[in-house]
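Handout for the seminar on molecular recognition.
Each group receives one record of this type.
Step one: identify the two inputs.
Step two: read the structure output and locate the region that could contact zinc ion.
Step three: write two sentences on what you found, then compare them with the reference statements printed after the record.
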Amino acid sequence: MGAAKLRILLVVLFLTIVAIVWIAISFRISPVVPALDLPATAPVAVGTPLPPPLPIESPTPMSSNFLGTVNLIVPVAGVKPEQLLDTFADARSEGRSHDAIDIIAAAETPVLAATDGKIIKLFQSERGGTTIYQLSADQKLIFYYAHLSHYAAGLTEDSQVRQGEVIAYVGDTGNAGAGNFHLHFSISIVPDPKRYWEGTNINPYPLLRH
Ligand SMILES: [Zn+2]
């Protein structure tokens, strides 16, 4: 093999390598992309404000839908809406918040069903004392009555009650404190009425004042 032939061979080899490298680089810079059928949306102008973010789900997502239609009475005989105090956000032991309203009344004052519904649980609890869980007729809300002295005669689990019906009497059972007679009343939204203790408490105050 002559020197000239060797030189030509080297040049060809060099050009081949350059060509391969060039092809490889151009592939990396502009990779072959399959033609996409992009929707013909209008181009977004610079400075166009973004659409508003979706509202964040609050703990009471249904409040605006149906709570406005909930018609409650103050569940203690003789107590007027304007006498109520909003104690929902008050602190309680162990870092808990109250999440309920306390309605002060004399011992043995009748406790009334705040709305129509079904008594689903009569329960003796350490904190609440003698308590009642009532499910609303639409099965979305649980009403909880605590520190009761005793239940109304004949009241049982599964009793259907009408708004204003006497279901119990004001007491100081549970952790109310001896002689601190009041009704502890809370309202919760329950995703599953069978799990009545797992609801999210909402403030009864505005619903009772309204
Ligand atoms: Zn309370």
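Reference statements: The two ends are 107 Å apart (CA to CA). The chain has two domains: 1-30, 68-209.
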